[in-house]
Target: Exosortase A
Amino acid sequence: MPLEAFATTARISPGWRGLSPPWRTAILRLVGAAFVLFALFARDWADMASHWWNISTYNHILLVPLILTWLVWQRGAELAKLQPSVWWPGLIPVTLAAFIWVLGAFSGLNLARQAGVVGMLAASVPLLAGPHVTKGLLFPLFYMVFLVPCGEELVTILQTVTAKITITLVHASGIPAAVDGVFIDTPAGLFEVAEACSGVKFLIAMVAFGTLMAHVCFVSWKRRAALLAACVAVPILANGVRAWGTIYAAQFVGVERAAGIDHIIYGWVFFGVVLGLIIALSWRFFDRPADDAFIDASRIAADPLLCRLRRYRMRAVPACAAFLAIVFGVQGWALAANRLSAPVPEELSLPAVPGWTRVDYRPKIWWEPRAEGAAHRLLGSYADEKGRRVEVFFAMYAAQTEGQEAGGFGQGALTPGTAWAWQSPGASVQAGHGEHLLAEGRVGRAALTWYRSGDLLTGSNTRLKLAAMADRLTLRERPTMLLIISAEDLGAHAGESITRAFVDAVGPVDAWMDRLGGLD
Model:
């Protein structure tokens, strides 16, 4: 498909005066619903806009509203031929989206909150404009998913994948190197595949672009699938090649000069190169004609399934009232849940552990987990007769709400902005989450993390959030506890054996945490 299709003027959207009275009324209903959603959930929209503007990973989303406007405009002339209607089954997706929002509000998961508000905005279309119009706007409604800033969850995986690709290329180029998690040691120095170098922002932007390109430039579903596969694979492989190029150059020009060159290349220049590569590989396979309409109104209007579905119409006033009841209802539910606060002891202390003695906290490099919003925080060290030392961090929360989440971003063993960086996953002990950290390229640390809520003992942040959701859905008050047991490495990941020995001395972790929190 020629690129002229992006600027085609063959089907101009009708102006306001060219619209039929039912369409004018439908647009006013949709604008009113959008106003309510923007006003009632202003905080969530503001958070999303802040991510788009301030976090480079999501800068590309600033273009998504313009793309959505263009997609609707391209369909305008055909949409005007359809008959909008108020459709009561549209209340089902509105309710589901509202429930997603309330789950996010209950768990402190911003991703769910933001997906919920975007979903409610999209779901207002089938409710207030009917099934035929929804079919005509199906792709733009789907494309609204790219308004939600997500993908940071892939950083750790992409760091590991990039490190594996890089070390393979480094060895293939004849450079002696060793990899430990996301750290690569070479004769020129130690390199880290940091979070900023994981390639996540280019992968997210490329998937958004590829989805648009697949819709606009292709008709064949096989070709669309092939393009999307390339939009996932090429950025990941290209990022590995870029990281290898930096390491390879460093062997000859030094680490500082190589890093300087990398900082010039790594950015939207790199994204532009990858984008150009994808377009160049796909160009000859474009199969949508330049004058091809995105939708066919006559075909949509005659669709027998849509005609049957259209029978489930309702009056506009009850539909709008039901919409308002849903969105105000979830706000009230969340407000009631936010007032929950379980009783916690006034004072807590670290107990004695058989075979271990409390000692002064003196790490080689300062390490202190973060637990914002916790009612209590304890940090101390234990040592045994063999000279082994462990650090114990315990936090207790009266509730899990915004700003006081045990599993929130930046909380726990790895605190952003410190000397410590994530290195690799570690072994699990009694359902705890294990990981290895490294500071200044020389001091390693093993850490085990547990969450405790009611009868739940887990190292999974996801399971903790599900438990928090269940508590707040039922308006149940109970505290949440966080325990981290950590030890510096004396050898190759020797910290794991030290933490395991301490856990063996503690006994069942769930019972020990209950005693720590005064719940036994």
Summary: Residues 1-10 have pLDDT under 50 and may be disordered. The two ends are 69 Å apart (CA to CA).
